[in-house]
Design goal:
Layout (H helix, E strand, L loop, with lengths): L12 E4 L6 E4 L13 H7 L5 H13 L11 E4 L7 E6 L5 E5 L2 E5 L7 E2 L11 E4 L5 E5 L2 E5 L7 E2 L14 E3 L5 E5 L2 E5 L7 E4 L3 E8 L2 E6 L2 E5 L7 E4 L5 E8 L5 E7 L2 E7 L7 E3 L5 E6 L5 E5 L9 E4 L7 E2 L9 E6 L5 E5 L4 E4 L3 H8 L8 E2 L10 E8 L3 E9 L4 E10 L2 E8 L6 E9 L2 E9 L2
Antiparallel strand pairs: 1-2, 3-30, 4-5, 5-6, 6-7, 8-9, 9-10, 10-11, 12-13, 13-14, 14-15, 16-17, 17-18, 18-19, 20-21, 21-22, 22-23, 24-25, 25-26, 26-27, 28-29, 29-30, 31-32, 32-35, 33-34, 33-36, 36-37
């Protein structure tokens, strides 16, 4: 398991049709929703599946809480919900109201998720794939028929005057940035509104798959011909990366460290891609599969929801080190894909499933972090990589006894430096890293781990 403190302000929702293989998505962004958490004991217990070393390190905690059972209720609480078909989107307003966008329209809860009421008056298209809430509690809904808006003083929805923008194959990436401006990606360009959707200005041409704002006028957009960056709020753009044909980033997230995270779609496959240089280069990290969206809690931990492609495939993951490593947090959830995931204002993770169910974590990630730091593991260990020998991909697992700058580097058999896989501050605990050595020739390699004054070395064999 890995630890760190980063922060992202982007969420997204992805829907993948099993019949047409079309991808529909939302990449909203709002600081007000960038909060959330998971339960203390729940996460401790879920770590048992990661590494036996973690199990024994946490055994005293389990004994101390011997009355805690391993039932579903200790990890996730199932929220009573109306019959909604598929939950495509979730959103929380600054006033605490929770909205869900479903295949049967929008539903609203104003009493802490105890009850729900339909919120569909004036909504001519009730298949709602995306939701956003502005700081003034105005809510926006994205459908195939267009963007709808409903202010707190309105009795019904009204469709926005955005001619032709959303009347295409895809629901669009749609976000509200930290300046309360709306960014709308479509099949015929990227549009900006500074008056809550009354008027729109075109700021980029092309088929827009996803968009994210990093603040201070920095925008990133994934299009049909590459990945673009703007440093002046969309006035000019520069392409930093070109995609292979029929691939794209369908959801984007950015952290306060400047790291970019992307849900990469490649035909019938998907993965997480990570960039630390503004999108010029990207590295694949686990887990694989189609990622629905990212969300960040108040401690900077990153959470994601994903599609389940096989029985037992986890649907919720967490990263504690800027998206470098991810751990499954899925125990107790049904075998359904996560379509939407947000972090609520009281630091809980709220997820919507493709079977129409809604789940919320029972405890706070913030309280779990404080609890875990009371029980740091002991020992400095570097395991043998697995598999070994390996063909293109292998995993390194290691443990560190204290919070320190940790570096994992690769050398050839002659001791010549090849690359550094990562170098950053990690919390005490067990961590793992998947090395994708696609561009590295076959041979014997040395991997060297250093953590403060400590260091260990092992050999790995790459056979292609």
């Amino acid at each position: 398991m890995t630890n760190s403190c980063v922060r992202s302000t982007v969420f997204g929702a992805v829907w993948l049709s099993q019949f047409s293989r079309r991808i529909f998505f939302l990449a909203p962004k709002t600081t007000a929703l960038c909060r959330g958490t998971l339960g203390a004991i729940a996460l401790d217990l879920m770590e048992f599946h990661v590494c036996s070393r973690t199990f024994f390190a946490l055994l005293p905690i389990v004994l101390a809480f011997k009355n805690v059972s391993l039932s579903q209720g200790n990890y996730w609480t199932k929220i009573p919900a109306p019959s909604v078909g598929v939950v495509y989107a979730l959103a929380e307003a600054p006033n605490g109201t929770i909205y869900i966008g479903t295949s049967h329209g929008v539903f609203q809860s104003t009493d802490g998720l105890l009850t729900w009421r339909p919120f569909n008056g004036g909504l001519s298209d009730t298949v709602v794939r995306s939701l956003q809430v502005a700081p003034n509690n105005t809510i926006f809904a994205a459908t195939w028929s267009g963007i709808f808006r409903r202010k707190t003083t309105d009795s019904s929805w009204s469709i926005l005057a955005a001619p032709g923008l959303l009347r295409e194959e895809f629901a669009t990436p749609f976000l509200i940035d930290s300046s309360s401006q709306l960014l709308l990606g479509t099949s015929n360009g990227l549009y900006l509104s500074v008056d809550q959707g009354n008027t729109w200005n075109s700021i980029k041409e092309g088929y827009i798959y996803s968009v994210v704002s990093q603040g201070n006028g920095i925008l990133y957009a994934s299009t049909n011909d590459g990945f673009y960056q703007s440093t002046n709020n969309g006035v000019t753009w520069s392409r930093t990366f070109s995609f292979p044909r029929y691939t794209a980033f369908i959801s984007l997230s950015t952290t306060t460290s400047g790291t970019l995270l992307a849900a990469f779609a490649d035909g019938y496959q998907g993965s997480i891609r990570r960039s630390i240089d503004g999108g010029s280069t990207w590295v694949a990290v686990e887990p694989g599969g189609y990622i629905s969206n990212f969300a960040i809690n108040s401690e900077g931990e990153i959470f994601l929801g994903k599609w389940k492609t096989s029985f037992g495939d986890p649907g919720v993951f967490r990263s504690r080190n800027d998206g470098l490593h991810w751990s499954a947090l899925d125990d107790g959830l049904p075998h359904s894909s996560v379509r939407a995931l947000i972090i609520t204002g009281n630091d809980h993770v709220l997820i919507g499933m493709d079977d129409g169910t809604i789940y919320k974590t029972t405890q706070s990630t913030v309280s779990w972090i404080a609890h875990q730091r009371q029980y740091p593991p002991s020992g400095f260990v570097l395991d043998q990589n697995f598999p070994n020998p390996f063909n293109t991909q292998t995993r390194f697992t290691f443990s560190i006894p204290g919070r320190t700058i940790t570096t994992l580097s690769i050398f050839n058999a002659l001791g010549q430096y090849i690359m550094t896989l990562f170098s950053q501050e990690l919390d005490p605990g067990t961590h793992s890293f998947l090395w994708s050595a696609y561009s590295i020739p076959s041979g014997v390699y040395i991997y060297h781990l250093s953590a403060g004054p400590l260091s260990l070395t092992r050999k790995a064999i790459l056979l292609k």
